[in-house]
UniProtKB/TrEMBL annotation:
This is NAD(P)/FAD-dependent oxidoreductase. It comes from the Bacteria. Coiled coil: none annotated. It holds the Pfam family FAD-depend_C. PANTHER family: FAD/NAD(P)-BINDING OXIDOREDUCTASE, FAD_NAD(P)-BINDING OXIDOREDUCTASE FAMILY PROTEIN. The lineage of its organism: Bacteria, Pseudomonadati, Pseudomonadota, Gammaproteobacteria, Vibrionales. SUPFAM superfamilies: FAD/NAD(P)-binding domain.
Length: 541
């Protein structure tokens, strides 16, 4: 096949425009064209009055010498041979293999570690401290309605991981030369995701679809010989000295059971603070990692649509508009938007008692009245003397303070942007109705974050308004606090994906500091599964 990149057409182009473009671009006849496959479709909205669609196409031809055709376009970077994107398994488990790899955590990283290992015949044991996704959803929605928190079954903990209650974004900026992201999306489609996630440039799924998809992937893992245990917390990773080196030999569970294995994957998620402490106590090498803190900001979605798309706002191909913003402040800090949820809601995302944490969530339709995004300020390890667990303590301190500011009942502290910028006291909300449940308490958010963060956000909001008109409007809403943008800890690993000081321990995903979202976590999971499989074969032979 021949790949055509940067195929640019008007937003409302005719149905046959792609074919006409291909015939002209490659100087071929209609009879030589067999098929046009859309590999990717994005849009260019820099000119709101002239929004364009940008395609990457794979072209199947007949009666054409493709080598000669490519030679004729040797100087055109947008005409190339289509790459081989088919996923190829690196190993197959021998029939007499008795060891079973253990995977801790059932977020996207852990799920894909287990799925790929199961597809290769290694029969993984997957341990999840929370509940199955259906039961977990019940607990989460109950908390939002009644403020009854289950610390082991919530937005952070349970089957599917934190990404289940999010926008379900499936795009990433990680380099992916092996097209592992395509494998992730293909598995999601097989589990019931819309087929368009394969080719649109910013695919998303939404919470309700993610719930059913996760259940189907779980069934596939079990059908392939994997074992899944819910409400099973790993109390201890067991380590022994073997030939002068630290070697994982298994895990001890919350009920006292010991499972032996020399291959343990720690895909624990960014909120497994007790597990970070356990690993630190066991001498596993951890390092402090940068993360961010801030608020959720809400605007009317129609305002964001108008600001981004102008007269094309509401177009079905464009959908609800998103944005990505960054501002470098005078105090040396950077403020940026994170986890933007078009047509979504702000959700309660704590996993600890007497703490308030916010996050954003959307359904596939993105049809709620508000757009929301985290507006956050970067925190570096130098802010807490590079202590690997002090970032966790900073998060916890801010979350507990927000709990008190909200009324000590899991309501969140909130303030209108106009009052926040004027450093005034909060007033009853006006045009933008806050979506956070259980509820919000209007207050002065200047006490919710360190002074440097408050100053930086106050500087950034008007700067963002120069890119998105109305972003600093007085009746937009801020809700606090957003603290779990990423893990404050990195569990250091080497090129073989094993801990740098503990053989057999494979840290992975967002919690270990190696991913930032569903897609990148899934990609990391595939890489870890391959590393585990190859090492198990090596030790078996």
């Amino acid at each position: 096949m021949i790949r055509l990149n940067q195929v640019k057409l008007p937003l409302d182009h005719a149905e046959n425009a792609l074919q006409d473009y291909v015939l002209k671009a490659l100087s071929i006849s209609e009879q030589q064209l067999v098929d046009i496959h859309v590999f990717k479709r994005g849009y260019d909205a820099r000119k709101k009055s002239q929004i364009s669609l940008i395609y990457t196409l794979d072209i199947t031809l007949k009666n054409v010498d493709e080598e000669l055709l490519l030679a004729n376009f040797d100087n055109d970077p947008n005409v190339r041979q289509s790459p081989d994107t088919e996923y190829k398994y690196v190993a197959s488990a021998p029939s007499d293999l008795t060891e079973r790899p253990i995977v801790i955590g059932m977020g996207p990283c852990g799920i894909f570690v287990a799925l790929i290992l199961a597809q290769m015949g290694f029969k993984p044991i997957l341990l999840e401290r929370g509940k199955s996704v259906h039961e977990r959803a019940k607990d989460t929605f109950r908390f939002w309605r009644t403020s009854e928190l289950n610390t082991e079954s919530n937005v952070q903990f349970g089957e599917g991981g934190a990404g289940t209650f999010s926008d379900g974004k499936l795009y990433s900026q990680v380099k992916d030369p092996g097209f592992l992201g395509l494998k992730v999306k293909q598995e999601f489609v097989l589990a019931g995701a819309p087929s368009e996630i394969i080719y649109v440039s910013k695919p998303h799924i939404g919470t309700y679809k993610l719930v059913t998809m996760v259940e189907k992937i779980r069934s596939k893992i079990i059908e392939l010989g994997g074992e899944i245990r819910f409400e099973t917390r790993v109390e201890e990773i067991n380590i022994e000295e073997v030939n002068g080196e630290r070697q994982v030999v298994g895990v001890t569970l919350n009920g006292g059971e010991v499972i032996n294995s020399k291959h343990v994957v720690a895909a624990i998620g960014h909120s497994a603070r007790d597990t970070f402490q356990m690993l630190h106590d066991k001498g596993v090498h951890l390092e402090a990692q940068s993360f961010s803190i801030g608020f959720r900001v809400e605007h009317k979605q129609e305002m964001i649509d108008q600001a981004r798309f102008g007269k094309n706002a509401g177009h079905p191909i464009l959908g609800a508009a998103d944005y990505k913003l960054v501002h470098h402040c005078k105090n040396g800090r950077s403020v940026y938007s994170f986890c933007m949820c078009p047509g979504g809601v702000v959700v309660a995302a704590t996993s600890e008692e007497h703490a308030v944490v916010t996050n954003g969530m959307s359904q596939y339709s993105r049809s709620e009245r508000n757009a929301n995004s985290a507006i956050v300020v970067g925190i570096s390890p130098e802010d807490f003397n590079n202590d690997p667990l002090q970032g966790v303590e900073l998060q916890r301190k801010l979350e507990r303070n927000a709990y008190v500011m909200g009324g000590s009942n899991y309501d969140a502290p909130a303030q209108m942007v106009g009052d926040f910028l004027a450093a005034g006291k909060g007033k009853p909300f006006e045009a933008v109705e806050p979506s956070y449940k259980p509820n919000v308490k209007m207050t002065d958010l200047s006490d919710a974050l360190p002074d440097f963060a408050i100053d930086a956000i106050r500087e950034a909001l008007p700067a963002f308004a120069k890119k998105i008109r109305g972003f600093d409007s007085k009746d937009a809403m801020l809700t606090g606090v957003e603290t779990r943008t990423s893990s404050p800890v990195q569990i250091k690993r080497g090129a073989d994906f094993q801990s740098i000081n503990t053989l057999g321990l494979y840290p992975g995903g967002e919690g270990a500091g190696y991913a930032g979202g569903i897609l990148s976590a899934g990609i990391d999971g595939i890489k870890i599964a391959e590393a585990v499989a190859l090492d198990m074969l090596k030790k078996h032979s």
